[in-house]
Amino acid sequence: MTKTWLKTLGAAVALSVSTTALSAEPLRVATDPSFVPFEMMDQETGEMIGFDMEIIAEVAKRAGFEYDLNTMDFNGIIPALQTGNVDIAIAGITITDEREEIVDFSDPYYDSGLRILKRSGDDSISEVADLDGKKIGTKIGSTSYDYLVKNLENNDGVTPYPGSSDMYMALMQGSVDAVFYDAPNVGYFARTKGEGQVETVGELYEGQQYGIALKNGSEWVDEVNEALASMKDDGTYETIYEKWFGPMPDAK
Hints:
By secondary structure, the protein is of the alpha/beta class. It has nine helices and 13 strands. It has helices at 2-23, 51-63, 77-83, 97-100, 143-151, 164-173, 183-191, 221-233, 236-245, and strands at residues 27-31, 34-35, 39-41, 48-49, 67-71, 88-89, 103-105, 110-119, 136-139, 158-161, 178-182, 198-210, 213-215. The strands form three sheets. The protein has a five-stranded mixed β-sheet with strand order 5-1-6-13-7, covered by helices on one side. Helix 2 (51-63) packs across helix 8. The protein is elongated and about 60 Å long.
């Protein structure tokens, strides 16, 4: 009698769990399709690839949810979370006090900022102080240009370029000694077109932190944070980072 009852109860529980799993809908994840190399369209496959895309795929696997990926203009992402049209967003979203008032954020998963790019084998440059008096390429109107002018005593060699490709070409041709610009951008160039010719060096300056955004009151915040923490603990995060950006920055 007891064994029969236990078997019946076990079957009922199994059916309940199975039904719950089958009825669970995938979470709606939003991203911006043009923030290279965090998220971008693979022209051959038509699929979204990039650093963020690998991060969210691993987070979903560890946190235990499936998801449908949606692309939209960056300016529409936070409003979409507010209205509940999407559940989660990952698109190089800087954590700010203003945004934290209207959406939930995971723990920071990416430290952004400004970073030095130099020619491979040049051991004379390892930090911003080493740029004093040298020829440095940066971008017109950028925070990196402002930072150099403000922090270098001898900044006569700071040269602003109209586009990032111009300053990278100048570095590889020897017209400038280094480039100082946004860390994700210089890191990606070092891993792609500049591989073997240039390399990033030193720490991050003027730091910002990116977080995974979730709709306000989301039940997935803890699971997402636990997934991110485990990825960092077992080296998975570093592997993904180095694939897209090269060696991780020195800790301050």
